[in-house]
Amino acid sequence: MVGDILVNTLINTGVYAMLAVGFSLMFGVARLINLAHTAFYMLAGYSIFFFITRMGLPWLPSVLLSILIVVVVAVVSYKALIDPMRERETTVLILTIALALVLQEVMLILFGGYFRSVPSALSGYSTILGVRVTNQYLLTLGVVAVTLVAVWLLLMRTKLGLAIRATAQDREIANVMGMCDSRTATVTVAIAAALAGVAGAVVAPLYILEPRIWLPPLTIVLAIAVLGGLGSLKGSLLGAVIIALSESLVVFLVPQGSFFKGAFSLGVMILVLLIRPEGLYGVAFEEER
Amino acid sequence: MMVRYHLLRLWREFKGEILVLPGRSILFFGAVTLFLLPLASSHPYLLRVVSLACIFAIFAASWDLLSGFVGQLNLGHALFFGVAAYTSGLLNLHLGWPPLVTIPLGAVAAVLTGLAVGIPCLRLKGPYLSLATLAFPVILMGLILMFTEFTGGELGVPGLDRLAPTRLHEYYVVATCAVVFILLIWKVTDSKLGIIFHAIREDEVAARASGINTPMYKILAFCLSGLFAGLAGGLYAHFMRIAGPSTLSMLTSFQVIIWTIFGGIATVHGAVVGVFILFPAVEVLRVAPEFRMLGYAVLIILVLRFMPEGVAPWVTDRLERECPRCKEHNAFTRRDCRVCGTPLRVPLARGVPVRGEGVGAGGRGGAVAG
Amino acid sequence: MLLEVRNVTVCYDTAMLLNDVSLEVAEGELLALVGPNGAGKTTLLRTIAGLVRWERELRRGTRAGNITVEGEILFDGERIDRLPPHEIAARGLVLCPERRRPFRELSVLDNLRAGAYLVRDRRKVAETLEMVYALFPVLKSRSGQVSGTLSGGEQQMLAIGRALMTQPRLLCIDEPSTGLAPRVCRELFAKIKEIAETGITVLLVEQDVRLAFSLSTRNYILSHSRVVAEGTGEELLKDEKVRRSYLGLAASAGA
């Protein structure tokens, strides 16, 4: 039982971390609260489903194509809808909700409301430290770990990463140093979408796919991003660990607990906010102008 | 004799306050249509849709008060709606009290909720505030779903009393409530209290520095907003004759935001316009069930893309003009301002040099705290 | 003329922050811009750097969006007044902003590297970095430190160092003396003079008139959004009216 909790927590931590990091990046660089973020995660899942079951493609090309699709859709909708409205934050919020609804409905129309499942890439089991784990789980963990490391390297060791970090600090002055904030924001959206795409792709075989699957993770990703401090990557990672852990405990230990998952995560978030109004690593919100 | 005098005065006031602006005239005649509608058609479905629109209009206006005027963006407004709905429902079901009693009590419960939520939210700012408000109804819904024997779980609290004996009576009850409550909300925004709210939204620090007790006013805003949202919630429960978890859902919270922003945030009439356009539209789209939600979402995207301030401001911008000197609105047909007489058409000489003291130089682009 | 500002007028809503301002900076000069608070000096630098138009694009259509910019700005003969800030930087015009504005959570080294974003040649970047370290040794010793924790003077040096990493031809510095102790100021200004002597043209906005005049080859005085006087330090100090009205200096017994 402990083994199950551990594995479950690890997987959830990884997936939540990928989603939360992307979400935080978009907020930090483009000041965007993208409520359609998990809808892109869902889009990736459906894309993989389509390529594997309907087109018969093998696993790896399906994953890569799906990530590409998600990135393209995200960047196009960002430039067409959100970038022009950048300064109107409430309008942008509604636009992201509407965008998520559009994605949901399109999936519903194309694939129906039935529960779909995606076949695993790897079959069989392995035994690690006395716990029996499906190979798919291991693959998922591996991909998540590699992706997170890749993101860290990108941010810390490349020029692009430097531009992203600098723009997140001071959008105006980043421009003055030659880093076009609009372009950096678009690239950030692409990276966040790619992360959501990877998350969707690796998680698809583990869970069931249906058009409303983007809603529960959204509350959780919001809870993580806020409690970790919006825009802080350390915060998102730590937040993912905290929430995944408490979620696993609630699901396994509290009867009927799984209904309460989302509410519990948000409860933890509120608790943290009461103590630290800007989240664990959030910077005190400077008033603009 | 006296009667004629008062009637004439009323007529002159009507002309002077309402007919003088196209925007207000439209709203007035809209309200008249609302009351005359059942005479034209007593189709029950139509009455039902318009009744619900009235209830939601109160709900939306209450959101606009808190989020539009005071700037406390509330992503979980369904909390007040649901708390009042459940309170009214439970009181009605278990204690048998009539709607006339349960609805105000439900509103009281919502006001108390406003206190309970407003106080922790005092320290939160910006997106932290908004996302925290998102959490509360979700948590409450989780609790409700867990303790099903008391709350009826997924099925809710059924079998509530009607608002009035017939559909027609219900319609008029709801319509009257809508007009009265929304006028009250508008009066709040148009009063000294409204000015204070505006100041807090624009620059809370400056308001604080001018001696305004911002925490108290923010809590007051939460409570007032909760009051009206609660009244809407109670009306909803008794109109639908059931109080269920959908009254607390994220979708309900998002709906009210969508309606208000679509119609025009920070204008009470915008919220009303948004509801009366979008809610019937969703119902109309029922004819094509497959594309209903999609059409709805696409409509919202298109409108916001091209009318980013909302429908009502877009329309008023074209029908009315603001006087450059006294800022009063005038019908676009007028040549001179009706209040101060300055000509409206002449393009303002660009930048009347106001000492160039860098007054607006506070407007340098912001630093992102990222 | 490296930089020509012609009849620039900037309005934020109904407030006119710059009123028909014109000035010129020749290559190799160290030009100082002085004047009372609120005269528009910072706005002028921001306009030159392209930030005002950037802000206008950003806020277009919103409540705070009524910003107008008129006039022409030429850099090395090319019109830059319609270019976005990052392209102006690419042409060799960089701003060292008011209140320094380092990238607070990034280290000193990362700040400097951020300045070198546009420079493709890695060797050049390394060379410039060495040059900046030689100019401001304290930056080298604190290169790993989070820049938000530096002292005011160190942050100012970092801001200038970061600007130098862009390989600028024209360096605009906005009120570097703000909040700094006199001794630190003097050291800083000595460094600015060194920078100017390497051939980089400097446009310096400064509150402290004496300090500014001690460095500059030529000056402009801005007051109430207008250019009200121009000349060398000597000329301006000799003019009684200028002394009293704009420089806040008492009648002199002799320059």
Give a description of the structure.
The complex is a heterotrimer of chains A (289), B (370) and C (255). Chain A is 73% helix and 3% strand. By secondary structure, chain A is mainly alpha-helical. In chain A, strands 1-2 form a two-stranded antiparallel ribbon. In chain A, helix 1 (2-30) runs antiparallel to helix 10 (233-253) and helix 9 (215-228) packs parallel to helix 11 (257-275). The longest helix of chain A has 29 residues, at 2-30. The radius of gyration of chain A is 19 Å and the shape is globular. By secondary structure, chain B is mainly alpha-helical. Chain B is built from 15 helices and four strands. Chain B has helices at 2-19, 22-40, 44-69, 78-95, 99-121, 126-146, 148-151, 167-189, 192-202, 204-209, 214-240, 250-263, 268-284, 292-306, 311-319, and strands spanning 157-158, 242-243, 320-322, 329-331. Chain B has a two-stranded antiparallel sheet. A two-stranded antiparallel ribbon of chain B has the order 3-4. In chain B, a hairpin with a 6-residue loop joins strand 3 (320-322) and strand 4. In chain B, helix 3 (44-69) packs antiparallel against helix 13. Chain B starts with a helix and ends in a 39-residue tail after the last strand. Mean pLDDT of chain B is 83; it is low at 348-370. In chain C, a hairpin with a 2-residue loop joins strand 1 and strand 2 (15-25). Chain C has 255 residues and is of the alpha/beta class. Chain C is built from eleven helices and ten strands. Chains A and B meet through helix 1, helix 4, helix 6, helix 7 and helix 9 of A and helix 6, helix 12 and helix 14 of B.
What keyword list fits this structure?
heterotrimer; A: 289 residues; mainly alpha; two-stranded antiparallel sheet; 11 helices; globular; disordered C terminus; B: 370 residues; 15 helices
User: In sequence order, what are the helices and strands of chain B, one letter per element?
Assistant: HHHHHHHEHHHHEHHHHEE
Estimate the strand proportion of chain B. under 5%
Catalogue the unreliable spans of chain B: 348-370
Number of helices of chain B: 15
Tell me the span between the first and last alpha carbons of chain B: 70 Å
Tally of individual helices of chain A:
11
The biggest chain-chain interface is:
A-B, 61 and 52 residues
Main β-sheet, spatial strand arrangement of chain A: 1-2
Instruction: Give, in spatial order, the strands making up the sheet with the most strands of chain B.
Output: 1-2
> Helix and strand string of chain A, N-terminal first?
HHHHEEHHHHHHH
- Tell me the number of strands of chain A: 2
